[in-house]
């Protein structure tokens, strides 16, 4: 057998990472000069990137096409509301609530991960709806009316805005770094093997259930953190909004339009979605209709997403998870 | 209680109607149409526009809407779905989710967000009822709808089992390539199936507009109901779809006795329970453990493909 060595990362990729790190540091200091509006918008962008990255882990690497990630967006929010009501300070509650959501994801995983693709997609959605109904029974939530995390009003608006922004930037960086490590490591390779051929992966000794379970739980916690950060900036918890299927639709759009199963695709997708919203958002319903048509056009004419632009020209995608072998 | 059971069964006819098109698309074209609920709403909106805007009678409006929906289904299969189908599992999902978003928001832009109903245009039919012994009131409209649903599904069943077109459909859904070798034009069969499926969705949407209200954003909920009915009843048989619809209607109507909010939850729970039960049955059928459960599922799907 020819000995193979894994080549180090390509020079453009290393430059890209250096730029990203520099950008991250700049973003951390941006609130010093940026207006409140810019800070709010960027916070929303970080949340979108987190959602896209998490859904890509699920669908792009573990092959789990979920239409029910809003279950964890809503549950994380609900856990936060409950904990704040019990007297916990709101910012730690964001993360503790997300961890509680991870426990729910662990319990659910025993059921949903045994379903086949189509059933998995539908069942996750129905579960999200069922959880929404159950949460609405809680008198604290007041049914469809919802409730406000009034404890957040104890902070001055600037302090709150800055805290959420920095928390968003930090968790987004952590998630990007974490999923990079995860995908570069053993779990990533195993997950990609499962996505490409589950039977073959199992036959070479990969514990397919465990790998999928690990990714499912991590992605659920990630969605819960991102969703709860969004709730912290929106303050009002309404079951219909937090458990709305639109979250999963956004994730799906960003990931598939950016390029599923690539590291950079979801980020590009999130940036595009954010830009569209900024430019055309004032058109309201017609803007969303346009996003729908754009999704159809991407699906039909650029099925590999924005990353496909590189692939179509025969170039390697930036920050590829594929290892380069030197023979 | 008895009243709730009767209402649940009657409601089931409507759900079966809603689910039939989804099931047909999945069974014949192997295409999961996530915009199915939005198509139903579109059918309702077109009928509403014909009645409110042009002043047509409800019957005439239905007679105009259904062929229009069928034509739309044919066109969408021709222009969008055929191309999406070549992209594997995910591309149809992105396509139909995009289509759903475009339909919902387009209808919102055109018709506004007000809830609309055809109930006001059918005279006293919307509240007329028969009184049964035991003080049970039986709404006439739900009964007519249930009968229509059974008739339409029965006719569709006959179409699929007794006609040359039905044979072509079954041959295509079993093995499109082999059917093509025998001279069946699979693409034409798929387009006709899509036309029937979208027309069925439109009819279900009109049913909804007759018995309740529709908004441009009702689609996703309708899609969930349709999926639940299809999965409860088992994919690939119209009788199963009818049974699934009735089971869902019963669950919602009986669950609604406990509290109005419990109604939908009961339907979701029945759906999840059926999935879990089927999964455990398949796991038991083999040597146990989840790998065999997946093996059993794929095996069963192949068996069903051969049967239909």
Descriptive overview:
The complex is a heterodimer of chains A (327) and B (308). Chain A has 327 residues and is mainly α. Chain A has 14 helices and four strands. In chain A, the strands form two sheets. In chain A, strands 1-4 form a two-stranded antiparallel sheet. A two-stranded antiparallel sheet of chain A has the order 2-3. In chain A, helix 2 packs antiparallel against helix 9, helix 2 packs across helix 12 and helix 3 packs across helix 4. The longest helix of chain A is centred in the middle third of the chain and has 28 residues. The model of chain A has no long low-confidence stretch (mean pLDDT 88). In chain B, 78% of the residues lie in helices and 3% in strands. In chain B, helix 2 runs antiparallel to helix 3. In chain B, a hairpin with a 3-residue loop joins strand 1 and strand 2. Chain B has twelve helices and two strands. Chain B is globular. The mean pLDDT of chain B is 86. The interface between A and B is large, with 49 and 46 residues.
N/C terminus separation of chain A: 11 Å
Helix content of chain A: over 70%
Order of helices and strands of chain A: EHHHHHEHHHHEHHHHHE
Say how many strands of chain B there are: 2
What are the main properties of this structure?
heterodimer, A: 327 residues, mainly alpha, two-stranded antiparallel ribbon, 14 helices, 4 strands, globular, B: 308 residues, two-stranded antiparallel sheet
């Amino acid at each position: 057998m020819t000995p193979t060595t894994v080549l180090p990362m390509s020079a453009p990729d290393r430059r890209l990472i250096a730029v990203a790190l520099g950008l991250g540091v700049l973003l951390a200091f941006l609130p010093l000069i940026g207006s409140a509006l810019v800070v709010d918008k960027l916070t929303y962008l970080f949340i979108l990137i987190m959602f896209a990255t998490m859904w890509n882990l699920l669908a792009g690497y573990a092959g789990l096409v979920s239409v029910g990630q809003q279950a964890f967006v809503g549950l994380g929010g609900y856990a936060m509301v409950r904990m704040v009501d019990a007297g916990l300070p709101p910012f730690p509650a964001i993360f503790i609530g997300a961890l509680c959501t991870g426990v729910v994801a662990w319990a659910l995983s025993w059921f949903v991960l045994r379903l086949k693709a189509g059933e998995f997609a539908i069942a996750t959605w129905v579960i999200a709806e069922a959880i929404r109904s159950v949460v609405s029974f809680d008198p604290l939530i007041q049914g469809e009316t919802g409730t406000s995390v009034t404890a957040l009003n104890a902070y001055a608006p600037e302090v709150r805005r800055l805290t959420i922004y920095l928390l968003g930037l930090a968790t987004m960086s952590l998630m990007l770094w974490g999923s990079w490590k995860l995908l570069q490591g053993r779990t990533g390779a195993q997950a990609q093997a499962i996505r490409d051929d589950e039977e073959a992966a199992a036959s070479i000794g990969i514990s397919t259930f465990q790998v999928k379970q690990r990714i499912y739980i991590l992605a659920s916690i990630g969605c819960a953190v991102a969703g709860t950060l969004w709730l912290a900036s929106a303050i009002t918890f309404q079951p219909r909004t937090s458990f709305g299927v639109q979250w999963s639709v956004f994730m799906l759009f960003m990931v598939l339009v950016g390029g599923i199963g690539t590291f950079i695709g979801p980020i590009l997708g999130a940036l595009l979605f954010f830009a569209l919203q900024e430019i055309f958002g004032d058109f309201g319903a017609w803007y969303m209709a346009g996003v729908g048509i754009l999704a159809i056009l991407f699906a039909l004419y650029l099925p590999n997403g924005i990353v496909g632009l590189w692939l179509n020209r025969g170039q390697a995608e930036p920050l590829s998870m594929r290892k380069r072998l030197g023979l | 209680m008895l009243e709730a059971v009767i209402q649940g069964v009657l409601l089931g006819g409507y759900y079966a109607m809603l689910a039939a098109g989804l099931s047909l698309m999945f069974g014949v074209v192997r295409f999961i149409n996530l915009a199915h609920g939005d198509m139903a709403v579109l059918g309702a909106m077109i009928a509403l526009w014909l009645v409110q805007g042009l002043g047509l009678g409800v019957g005439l409006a239905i007679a105009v809407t259904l062929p229009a929906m069928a034509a739309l289904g044919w066109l969408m299969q021709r222009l969008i779905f055929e191309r999406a189908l070549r992209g594997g599992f995910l591309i149809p999902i992105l396509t139909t989710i995009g289509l759903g978003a475009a339909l919902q928001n387009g209808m919102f832009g055109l018709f506004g967000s007000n809830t609309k109903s055809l109930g006001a245009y059918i005279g006293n039919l919307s509240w007329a009822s028969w009184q049964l012994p035991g003080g049970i009131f039986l709404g006439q409209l739900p009964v007519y709808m249930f009968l229509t649903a059974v008739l339409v599904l029965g006719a569709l069943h006959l179409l699929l089992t007794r006609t040359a077109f039905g044979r072509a459909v079954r041959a295509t859904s079993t093995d499109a390539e082999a059917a093509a070798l025998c001279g069946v034009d699979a693409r034409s069969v798929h387009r006709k199936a899509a036309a029937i499926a979208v027309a069925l969705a439109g009819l279900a949407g009109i049913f909804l507009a007759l018995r309740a209200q529709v908004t441009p954003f009702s689609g996703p909920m309708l899609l969930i109901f349709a999926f639940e009915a299809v999965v409860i009843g088992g994919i690939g048989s119209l009788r199963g779809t009818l049974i699934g619809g009735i089971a869902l209607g019963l669950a919602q109507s009986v669950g609604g006795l406990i509290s109005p909010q419990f109604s939908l939850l009961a339907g979701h729970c029945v759906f999840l329970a059926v999935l879990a039960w089927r999964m455990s049955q398949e796991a038991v059928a083999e040597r146990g453990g989840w790998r065999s459960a997946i093996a059993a599922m794929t095996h069963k799907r192949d068996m069903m493909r051969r049967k239909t």
